Amino acid sequence: MEDLAGQPIAWTRSGDGEFPYLATHGGARLTIRVNDFPAEPLYTLLVDDRPALDLEDWPACWQRPAVPDAVLHVAAAEQTRRGRVDALVLADWARRLCVIPAGPTATILAALGLTGALADAIGYRLLTPPPAGTGRVEVSEEDGTLTALRVTPMPAGPGRDELDELLGAGRDGVRIHWDQPRPVHYDVTVAAAPFGCQVTAYFPIDAVLSATVLMQRRPVRLSS
Fold first, then answer.
1. How far is it, in rounded angstroms, from Cα 136 to Cα 150?
2. 139 touches 126 (CB < 8 A)
3. pTM exceeding 0.90
4. Can you tell me the distance from the alpha carbon of 6 to that of 198, in angstroms, rounded to the nearest whole number?
5. Pick from 196, 198, 168, 162: which is nearest to 183 by CA?
6. Calculated CA dihedral for residues 28, 29, 35, 40, nearest 10 degrees
């Protein structure tokens, strides 16, 4: 069989969270299925509806289209239902943090679909129990409203290529100390939204998957 993972295939989005990508190559109908990671490979390539290749990562030469907000929300909701907090979910939360109106922290968390109690800690509050797919969610506040979320996805966070695709090209931050995680910053904005969201993914030394993701919500001064 042809090495399809090495071919420059252009994919389109289906709007289906479990089978999110479609393509045609060499007269065959190609479909990508998202599996129950990490128990199974992350993706399976189906050729004419038959499993042909398991993939742990998205091939570099494959082209994924930009994700409209409506499609992103549908795909993220499906991943959340499956107990995953991946790049789709984090990107959806970041864009929602831009458009959710100012208000109490509990209201903002509910708009993100996050439930649970907030336990006080030093400098932040901890969402308990942590949502499925996470080991920890820290909430920062100012004047009773949410200003930041720090999420620890389990078993690991998304890779930089996934975040770059959904959030735009990231920019490298500076390590405070050589043995600390490497930060990569993304600025997420939505037209006419009252807030912007800076997303920072932290990558441990020599790791390709992020360990934690920080989302900071900041007011935007809208021009009149």
1. 8
2. yes
3. no
4. 34
5. 198
6. -10
